[in-house]
Amino acid sequence: MISLQQLSVRAGTKLLFSDANLSIYPGQKVGLIGQNGVGKTTLFKALMGEVPLDSGQVFFPADWLIGYVEQEVESTQSKVLDFVCDGDSLYAQAQKELQLAEEDGEQQRIVAAYDQLDRIRAYEVPTKARQLLYGLGFSDEDLQKSLKQFSGGWQVRLKLARALMQRADLLLLDEPTNHLDIEAVAWLEQWLKSYEGALLVISHDRDFLDEVVQGIAHIDQQKIYYYSGNFAAFERQKNERLMQQQALHDKQKQQMQHLKSFIERFKAKASKAKQAQSRVKALQRMETVAAVQALNPFHFQFAEPKYQPDPMMELRGLDFAYGDKAILKHTDLVLRAGDRIGLVGINGSGKTTLIKLLVGELQAQKGKIVTAKGVKFGYFSQHQLETLSLEQSPLQHLLKLPDAPSDQEARDFLGGFGFSNQQCLESIECFSGGEKARLALAIIVFQQPNLIILDEPTNHLDMETRDALEIALQEFSGALIVVSHDKHLLASIADQFWWVHEGEVSHFHGDLDDYLQAQLKRIRQQASEQKSEEGKNNSQNRKQLRQANAQQRKLLEGRLKPYKSKQKKVEDELAKIQQQLAEHHALMEDQSLYEDGNQARLQECLKQEAICQQRHEELEMQWLELEEEIQSIREEFENE
């Protein structure tokens, strides 16, 4: 178990966490969420010891390995398959030891190295790495290339694959879906669901969180609040709590007003001075419950198109290639007024190329695109933020557009995208990626397009902005073409899909789930064929890897068995106590509990909650003590 206790952390002068707490148990999968800038990535760095703690402690077993995606690559000369296999540090160390032993010709070391490879089931590692790489969109041909032959986005995928190969007890993933296509995201969901270690993942992708996690850690107001269940369950619980919070706030406001009235009326009268003073103290002690604010600060909508030609665009016999590599061949498509198209296909298949052809950024080598008169594009590209002028303010960006609004109209308009009057006047140079993305969306919305084309619009957006964008696009009556790895967004706004595959663009007959299931089936079939072939080649290696140290491993397991058995009982009781605590918390949110005449019931609830909390702390301490015993036995065994 890893435990964050009374954690306080700063980023410069900004306090990110104040007395925050969180516990993660073996095998538990938790989504870490919160608005941009609240400290999600800083928390990861604190777990890895990369940022100092102002106060508090982070406890985790001494033998726990924390896995993460490396930011820097030591050598870009490494072959892809070797680079990913070496993410398994035990495998990499054992292979290196075998190589050195063979170079020195020391038979005893060679035997020991083979035994270690057998113990860690090394013959399975290349197969596992291949499955990972297939799932993330790499081909057999790619596996023998060096890292330097891949673009930055594909290198990010390779670093993710290397991280997933780690035998980590806790895996930290920060926005793992951002550089993936929707097919790879669907495959990653399946991989992580079967991952045996604990997982803490930062993500703004609600469908991804719904598929992968069983708990949500929400960072809010410098605290970490844990909710059981996936993201959908978190939203239900949070909304219920906010409604109860509003009711409690209203009641408390009445109580506070009553106290204030009494104080004002009687504080000057000697006979009532003592009672008034007691009410002053009561007022000071009363914890003010904040009123529920509007849940989403962003609200915008696309204007109703004044004119929609039909058809809007036609592609006739379109061919496009980069050098000798054909991207699109003999493409014929028709975009009708009001069409809502989801563009799907693996990264590199030509989706972005097709979009650039549609908007005129690229010119086809053959064929033509016929765009109807009156089509007005609203285009958001993957690199849209680079087109903004860093030295200008959001207001200046809007005022320089054709048909620019008045100064006040522009400010009001930008307010719907979360820009305050002060932010409207600031240079965007210091804006976050999410703030710049909101400005880019604002510019598109203002221009009132009748054809919106979005290429990965959500990469820098938090959930609140994604929700606002989704609602605005659902209400938009013009034509729409979207590329996105966000399954929730794509499924909610597209009603037909164009599949870009092997140079062709075709209509996919089915919904998004049908498409993703077909792609997962293809990946599994590819991996299965490769596994079968490797199984034939590795049968002799597996025989060589099996050594006579199995009895020693059985001896170690025998020593550990009673401690692991006790630990399992503690974990089972912890789970029950956690459930009881959750029930108590739900009961405490019952508004009737605080009404007159229910004091005894309230006191009993508080008492039972305190008993459960104390037992929870005792069990956590027992678990940690048993884990220390297990680690001690392992160390003794290795030194014998």
Tell me what you see in this structure:
The protein is of the alpha/beta class and 640 residues long. It has four domains: 2-235, Rossmann fold (3-Layer(aba) Sandwich); 236-285; 313-509, Rossmann fold (3-Layer(aba) Sandwich); 556-639. The protein has 20 helices and 18 strands. A hairpin with a 2-residue loop joins strand 8 (215-220) and strand 9. The radius of gyration is 30 Å and the shape is flat. The two termini are 28 Å apart.
Can you tag this structure with a few keywords?
640 residues; alpha/beta; 4 domains; Rossmann fold; six-stranded mixed β-sheet
How would you briefly describe this protein structure?
This protein is of the alpha/beta class and 640 residues long.
Number of domains: 4
What is the assigned CATH homologous superfamily of the largest domain? P-loop containing nucleotide triphosphate hydrolases
What is the fold-level CATH name, i.e. the topology of the largest domain? Rossmann fold
N-to-C CA distance: 28 Å
In terms of structural class, how would the helical and strand content be classed?
alpha/beta
Mean pLDDT rating: 82
How many beta-strand segments?
18
Question: How is the main sheet built?
Answer: 6 strands, mixed
* CATH architectural arrangement of the largest domain: 3-Layer(aba) Sandwich
Please write the CATH class name of the largest domain.
Answer: Alpha Beta
User: Radius of gyration from the CA trace?
Assistant: 30 Å
Helical segment tally?
20
Q: What overall form do the CA principal axes indicate?
A: flat
Helix-residue proportion = 40-55%
Spatial ordering of strands, largest sheet: 5-6-7-3-8-9
Low-confidence stretches: 285-294, 544-549
Question: How large is the share of residues in beta strands?
Answer: 15-25%
